[in-house]
Amino acid sequence: MIVYDLSCSEGHRFEGWFGSSDDFGEQKASGLLTCPQCGCAEVGKAPMAPSVPAKGNARTIVSEGQTDIAKGEMPPEVKKAFKALAEAQARSLKSSTWVGDKFAEHAREMHYGEKDEAPIHGRATKGEAEDMLAEGIKLAPLLVPVAPPDELN
Ligand SMILES: [Zn+2]
């Protein structure tokens, strides 16, 4: 799993998680890569070395609209890449706690030192995500939609 600092044509910066550097190229080519802030697909690597988030400092969110990605028809090769990505993501989320809609609350408490750092993932609205980014809270958008544990079955 590698993390790239990405930026869109509007200058928004965000992180993208990939199984390999080839995954990045494939997703970019198939238009799966979009800016979580403005949704544009003109996304490239930000001028900065790729980094892997420190253990225990990973915060990931499912942004609005992402849950629709998996529903559409995809070419087989994209489906395959998507599946590999989903598996890699599932492995990386094993040690992470689902906090659902309380994501912003938890992320803030950790950011301001009111709570110990721990890997969490959950849901945040676009507005919440923008506020958190403005406060300097690091977020990693999930590329593959995750079904909330309480909504399975
Ligand atoms: Zn953007």
Helix and strand run: EEHEEHEHEHE
Q: What strand line-up does the widest sheet have?
A: 5-6-4-7
Coarse morphology: globular
What compounds are bound to the protein?
zinc ion
Quantity of strands, as a count:
7
Describe this structure in words.
- This protein has 153 residues and is of the alpha/beta class.
- The chain folds into 2 domains: 2-45, no CATH class; 74-143, no CATH class.
- It has helices spanning 21-29, 76-93, 103-111, 126-134; strands at residues 2-8, 13-18, 43-45, 59-62, 97-100, 120-123, 140-141.
- The longest helix is centred in the middle third of the chain and has 18 residues, at 76-93.
- The radius of gyration is 15 Å and the shape is globular.
- The two termini are 29 Å apart.
Q: Which descriptors apply to this entry?
A:
153 residues; alpha/beta; 4-stranded parallel sheet; 3-stranded antiparallel sheet; 4 helices; 7 strands; globular; binds zinc ion
Short description:
The protein is an alpha/beta fold and 153 residues long. Helices cover 29% and strands 20% of the residues. The protein binds zinc ion.
